[in-house]
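Dear support,

We are seeing what looks like truncated structure output for some complexes. This example has two components. We would appreciate it if you could run it in full and send us the complete token output so we can diff it against ours.
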Amino acid sequence: MHAMMFSVRQLLRVAAVAATSLCLQAVDAAVPGITGPSFNLVAAAGRISQPDGASVYAWGYGCNGAPTSFAPTAVQGANCPSGAMQLPGPTLIVNQGDTVTVTLTNNLPAAAGNTSILFPGFQVTATNGAPGVLTREAPHGYSVTYSFVASTPGTHSYYSGTRGDLQIEMGLYGALIVLPKLNGGIPTGYTTPAGLPVTCRAVSATSPSGQTDFRLAAAAYDNPAACYDREYLFQFSEMDPRIHVQADQQSNLSCASPTGCMTIAIEPYKAAYFMINGRSMPDDMDSHYAVQYPNQPYNGNPHMHPGEITLLRIIGQGRMQHPFHEHGNHVRLLARDGNLLLSQTQGSNSLAGPLLFTTTTTPGITLDGVYQWTAKGLNWDVYGHVKGGTPGVDTEPCYPDANGYYTTASNPPAPPTAHNYYEWCLDHEKPLEAHAFGDVGSGGPVTLPDPNVLQNGAWYSGSPYLGPDATQRAVGNTPLPPTGTIANSPKSEAGFAFMWHSHNEREITTDNIFPGGMLMMMLVDPWVYVIDESN
Amino acid sequence: MEHRASEICRFDGGLAMSSFARLGFKFLVVAGLMAGGAAQAQNFRTQCPTSTTLHPLVNLNGVVTGTSADIYPNPHIKCQQVSGGDGYATMADGTQIYMFSFGPLSGLADIVNGKPGTQPSAVFNQSNVDASGNVLDAIKVGAPDASYAFNGAIGLVPDPTSTPPNLIDGHVDPRLIMDVGVMNGNIPAPLIAIDEGDELFLTLTNVGMIMRPDLFERHTLHFHGYPNASSFYDGVPDASVAINIGASFTYYYLAPEAGTYMWHCHISPPEHLQMGMVGQLYVRPRQNSVASGTDLGVALKAANQSSPGSNGVKCNDVLCALQMPLPAGANPSTGATGKVAVPGRMYAYNDGDGVSGYDVEYPIQLHGFDPNFHFVGMTFNPESFVDTKDKFFLMNGRSYPDTTVSGPLNTQASDGTPHFSQPLPSLINIPAGKKALLRFSDLNVTEYHTLASLGIPMHVVAYNARLLRDMDGNNTDYYTNSVTLAGGESVDVILDATDTTKYPAGSIFYLYTQQLDHLSNDAENFGGMMTEVRIN
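Here is the complete output from our reference environment:
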């Protein structure tokens, strides 16, 4: 039942257990899902796991038979076992203009009664099944079919339209992604400004840097400002375990009623689990389709390179608002509920969405936003280049492109393998440290504290600088005491970690244990580090 | 460099690792340096240089001349020291409530007067001892008091090991830090205010939490909302470093774009934020120093063009980094909007058209305390996050009617002396015919707040430290009667009292929460998140 209350002091013990799950291979993200435009889904019962060891009885949508295919193809290990539930439900990926058909079969326990799916934002025709209040429903053991034209691109949600206070709590929700009608090509009107690298490119196997292209599309909308290099989907939801326990206890009641036979107290509602994509931290940072979470296939583990435009697809599921705070920079809001926010100026397609450092999620609302990190204006060289140093040893060139960054549009162009690709050249060779120990710039404004008076975090790369080359020069070829960082290796990654989390801080807990809940670490990785989102 | 797919992942029993430096390479170098002079291993210290490469020494008039007249500290280097520790505050029902909190260790005279504690280096770097070596009266247990006049950093004393000796170089006497810093917590935390272009050196000094001897709690300082942030100075312990008890860490940042930000500890945030380690930070725009008579749009266009590739009119990147779209009606070649700078006029943002102009400003932070959580936190018991429920609803650490008290609130310490615990008033006084800027920030840990204005409309000009304007330069500001904020959000609201017929001197309006159950102070059923707006 309701959790034992753990002291925050006990976090170390629990987190120790939880953190071993971080010891896996590259576990980045992308937006995996299944393609249609016809989908056969089930609603079924299952169990999901929490990092405190709890196994929570839940309901969710899943596949009924093999899906048409999985996307993006570069993500490995994709699966959608027939008849099994997942939380959130399978991410449905379609193209704008598709006629989407979803046939839902109700394999929930009879005691749950009917179930259904709503597709807010679309004109849905429902056939078969039984009449319901918000839409037609599938009785226990039967099916219902929904059909609509995916006219609106962007990020959308789907969720149960039957007894939502119980069924959505139990996990019956998922995402629907509508790719703009560009067939992977770039939006109309996009042109690369003179002297700048191409920032909108068609989907292909690799990007110009040679790293794998994991995107579903070149842009979120048919608008030149909606291009992106990387994308992530974050669905926010919560659970009150007392409700799940009651449903579990009553799941075997024999029942012939369309409204089910369960009597469950929903109020007072006390959420104890707070999840991103159905998982609490640190499980959310394990891989997609990880075998230890058979019913929770999706993760939340954003990575990006400096300068990359990252698309955030944010969905409020469940019943509570969450102030989702992104450390490191603002997010430019592109769209709400699939509607681009555009300028008042007649005929303009300029963006009008606000810049937000906290993108509040609200149940029923979806947001699309773009984010980018560049170190512009920091006033010190994040690569620790030494003024007057030896090129190739402790400094390297930074030729600015038209916007001031060292890129392929610079003259001479930056090789994509440069340690400092996308460096902000106006801060080149500006030192941070007054008297650096290592082979990094000196004469800067600050003296770093003695490491004896500090505690190092699990995602600390070992130095204030970005990248393994700079970190190596700054602190030498030794792992951080006592055993090296777990999740941001100084020798290969050495990225800048930023916490992305709900700012209702109570929600970065898992049933009274900190850390947990709605928390992810976003890594800005140097370009030399290959971001592998294959699983 | 190839990505190695299988990094060996060893795990020795805890996310929190102790920090014994067994770096052979490093010790060699440390030993060499210590032979040279400056003791690297001292724990408490401050950092506040008088000059940097960006801001060299200046002459008597504050100008960099490049001559031998440049011997004065550059005024654009700002410094502040805060303690990380604990303290007590007084709630509106009289309850003394325990908190984890930041307290002021510099700028104390200003803080007591409700002003930001940030000082230029010339003020910060003052010795705490006089020429005879006697400690100044101001540096004593229980400082500051009502007559406080000292704005320097606490603890600074001449450094016997400097070359030449006895320089004020950040060397501190730990006794002075502990005399003032222990249990001197403030709610909200010391106010930070800087100008665009400033370099800020913010020293966090961990004095320990006296009421919790069981905790070896570290603290950090997160600059919430900073664009293009540095991970090392972002204050997230998991992503960087956290400072132990008995030590100082100096955060360094060039001021970001103008706006209303906030700051807070990021150690165990569900606990440390609920317990009170929350504060405010704002950056004043360079538009405030545009020469009188100069067109604001012309100045904005020129400032935009310091970004390579910018035409000064439109942003050259989707996040408008270090740029602001020129107002839609401005002359595209000169930038002129017809709005000129007038002496003494202040703006919240570099708007180029004056839309964020104001006469008086009030930073107001929304927060809440759960008295049960704080009691449990004081008495070494496990806290329940699931059951956290605020009962005190705070605006700058106060609830009604304390929100209408001018001057600082104090809380009696165990020796009977009053400590200033809540220095920032939340009473809004607007001179008749003027405009007030309310810089709202929220650091509540459990719920959203809606704050309504009764009688005088709210003009929302900016949100999350960014002016509301689309990428074509059209303002997207709006008028409303309420704003809704959750923890981690900020909004800039202007209360426009220029119409003296509607808002004559002597009027009183109210700012209050629409969560009507939050108009209470625990069991007292009237009070809570409410304050008065007085037209003077």
